[in-house]
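Sample entry (317 residues):
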Amino acid sequence: MAQGFFKHIPNINYDFKSDGKYYQAKDLFRKVSVWDYLQEGVAGYSYYRITEGERPDVVASKLYGDATLYWTFWLVNENLQDHTDWPKSQALFQKFLDRKYPGKCLVAANSTDIVAASPGLKFTLGEKVSQSSTTYGFVTDVNPTHNRITVQIPLTAPGSFTIGSTVTGASSGKSFTISSIQNERDAVNHYTTEIVAVVDGVVVPSTGSDPQLVELVAANSLIEVGQLVTGAGISGSNSVAAIDGTTLTLTNKVTLDNNTVLSFGAQSIRTTVATNNIAVTNERYELDLNEERHLIQYIPSHYVGRVVKEFKELVGD
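Predicted structure, serialized as tokens:
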């Protein structure tokens, strides 16, 4: 679907392997420069929420009365890099998950079971790993962060991996005892954590022009100036104006009880730490990405003709 966009980008010769052999490919650096130009040159993008199964050409026809202008969506949305990034219907999304996450994750007790401290002793991509002569697979991902390897199990392997059994790499010689087994789509992609802190002592509103200070039980390195602050006793918009160790300066006056839990920032942040945090599976991660892509920005119809003309001239320079 994005071919309408790429046809306007000129070709350039690339030496991919630095071996003196050049191949023609699209000059994708042009998209970066064009994106910067549009950010500066078009004020007030409009937004559109894509409905279930709605195709790009259908959306372009609805917004512009011209189905061929669908490629402009790839021009102004950074999260649309190729046609596979267009939001998927439920049926297509399930097929996408089956293709991207078809494997089994074999989880070890420790990260050193996956990649040892000694150089060279680790599972490698593509190697055969076996539990027995009838239970084996081929490594498609090595993830010491989450203490696991992912394997693709061929149809010719009749056996099933089992918890408590030992799996061994044919070429690396690495082995570990399987502590758990997961479908790849159900495995942890990352964790999310909320930025929180606890108020130390009762906080009363500041007087006059004095800054509103809040003392915390402990400092939190994730708190940053400008972050929104929410919690019991805080109404309206309030944010962090300054940080001095465990002392925060807020932008507005507040009354807070001792031990009030404050949250900082509008969104949770990603982390690899599991303790006290929320696990996000591969399926949940992809589902959230797909949902985010349903809301796209587009060039308002009264601008689109000029932008298309100038874009063609720009990439042709």
